Each structure stands twice: as structure tokens, then as C-alpha cells.
Amino acid sequence: MRAVVITGTSSGIGRACALALDAMGMRVYAGVRRPQDGAALCSVASDRLTPIVVDVTDAESIGAARDLVAGQVGGEGLAGLVNNAGTTVPCPAEHLPLDVFRRQLEVNLTGHLAVIQAFLPMLRSAHGRIVNVSSVGGRVGTPLMGCYAAAKHGLEGLSDSLRLELGPLGVHVSVIEPGFIASSMPAKLKRDTDDWLRRLPGDGRDTYGRQLAAMATRISREATAGSPPDVVAGAVAHALTSRRPRVRYPVGAGAKRLLLLHRVLTDRLMDRVIGHATGYQG
Ligand SMILES: NC(=O)c1ccc[n+]([C@@H]2O[C@H](COP(=O)([O-])OP(=O)(O)OC[C@H]3O[C@@H](n4cnc5c(N)ncnc54)[C@H](OP(=O)(O)O)[C@@H]3O)[C@@H](O)[C@H]2O)c1
Predict the structure, then answer these.
(1) pLDDT in tens, 5-23
(2) 11-38 burial by CB neighbour count: b if 16+ within 10 A, else e?
(3) C-alpha closest to that of 88 among 176, 150, 154, 16
(4) Angle between helices 210-224 and 267-278 (to 10 degrees)
(5) Which of 5, 9, 11 most suits a substitution to test ligand 1, by most atoms within 8 Å of the C-beta?
(6) Structural domains of the chain ordered from first start
(7) For residue 85, how far is its CA from the centre of ligand 1 (angstroms)?
(8) Neighbours of 148 (CB within 10 A)
(9) Which residue ranges in the chain fall short of pLDDT 70?
(10) pLDDT single digits (tens) 107-166
(11) Residue 174's beta-bridge partner residues?
């Protein structure tokens, strides 16, 4: 029975991946931060699915999860690791506290490397695969989301290096690049934007407030009307099981169109497209 570890399975894309891979007969180790989220997942999955408590910023929880999984899979190793956990910080760069920036990199980038390091020996022994959930935001920057763009662009670069480094060792690395997906993200983005609007100093609110609120509304609206998380789970399943896994999977509403524009347009023209799409224009 092929075993796979997924981070961030309490909701959205991670939850859809856990349930889809479970339904395919895999032994899923589903990363959650709260035990009650693991129990909720178990109530709708097979008894193969095992919740593991993993906060990707907490070395102790990663180590404990690794020990638990290693003890159960033994010499069979791991067929896959899906690095999906992620958060979004909507804040103008001018007023972004550096500790918040560092925290975002920790969750969306450094934490994934920490998890990869922990599980790599098990992946190597099974010639398993790594699937990193990035974003179209890992290829195309968006105003007022600089720290998300930095983390996801970093994840794209890290994934390219890992693919080259680990391919010869038998571990394939794929990147998933979702567009607009109807997960818990839209509601969290609205909530966090309201919070940042309150936290901004007066001149920050005057300069950026209206556009920050407008951008969050647009992204939330698009994501709410976007593709279901199952669409991403399908791409993850392909990356884990296909005989010819792809390097990149742009998937879900808007992803392929935006990345095609990114490829064919000049940077200046692309800026106009993003400015128009986000409503952030001079
Ligand atoms: N939705 C979209 O339109 C979209 C588009 C592009 C890319 N993505 C990417 O897809 C991935 C999944 O996002 P989603 O849309 O499914 O959002 P979501 O429903 O908010 O799920 C995010 C998951 O990450 C977990 N998480 C957050 N911080 C964590 C930490 N420190 N350690 C471990 N887990 C943590 C959350 O757990 P808690 O419940 O404990 O907070 C939750 O399970 C993210 O990497 C996101 O950037 C999403």
C-alpha cells in the first residue's frame, strides 16, 4: 500500500487531496495542526487515513510526525510528500512588519524544506515523489501581496533545484500552480484584509486602504467562484502516480490563461494586465 504524507489537510486543497488519495487506496498521513481537524477528516475517510499533527514551522511536531510515519511504513518508505500548507498576508510592503514577512516565508517556504528534509530518507528509499503546492502567484507578482509572492517564487526556485538535485536519486519533484480555487482561502483573505486595514497607520490606510480592500474583494470573489479543490487534487494525484509526472501543473480557474499571458507579454504589458485584474492602478 503506497503511503503519502500531506500537510495542511484541515480544509480546502489539502483536505481534497487527502480524501482523493485515500479513495484511490493510498495510505494517507494527513497533516493537521489541531487533533479535532484530524478527527473530522477521519469521519469521512477510510480507516487507512491517519492524521498526524504537523505545524510546518515547528521542528518538534515535524520530528514526531516523521518518527510516527517511519515506524509504520518501515522499509517500504514513502511514495509521496505533498507540501500544501500555506497562508496569505494581504499588506502593502511599505507597512509590512518584517517579523510578519519572516513568518510568511517560514510557513510557505522554509517550513516546506523542513518537512522535505525530515521525510527525504523515506522518499529516497521508495523512489517516491515530492509535490509542492505553489500558485500562479509563484510566477506572477501581485501588488499588496509581496510576501506571498516572495514565498511562492522562492518555492518555485527551490522546487527547480530539488528536481535537478533529487532526480538522479530517483525522487521526482512537481509543482502545482493553482489559479482561483474555492477553498477556505477567500474567507480568510477577507478576514485578514479587514484586520490589516485596522492595523495600518493612518497614512498607510489613506494611501493603500481603498485598493487593499478592493483587491481582497476581487480575489475573494474570483476564488469563491473558482474551481473546486478536487481539481487540484486531480493534478496532485497525477503528479504522484502517473508514469510521466509533469514538472509543473497550472490548474484551476485562470491559471493557464494567466501563465500564457506571462509567457508571451512583456513585463510592462503584464503589469497592466495585473493592474486591471486587481484594480490596483495609478
Ligand atoms: N485557494 C486558492 O485560490 C489558491 C490559489 C493558489 C495557491 N493556493 C495554495 O494552496 C495551498 C492550500 O491552500 P487552500 O486554498 O486550500 O487554503 P486553506 O483552505 O486555507 O488551507 C490552508 C491549509 O494550510 C494549513 N496551515 C496553515 N499554516 C500552517 C502551518 N504553519 N503548518 C501546517 N499547516 C498550516 C491550514 O491549517 P489550519 O486550519 O490549522 O490553519 C490549512 O489546512 C496553499 O499553499 C495556498 O497558497 C491556493
Answers:
(1) 999 999 999 999 999 999 9
(2) bbbbbbbbbbbbeeebbbbbbbbeeebb
(3) 150
(4) 90
(5) 11
(6) 3-278 (3.40.50.720)
(7) 5
(8) 22
(9) 282
(10) 999 999 999 999 999 999 999 999 999 999 999 999 999 999 999 999 999 999 999 999
(11) 131
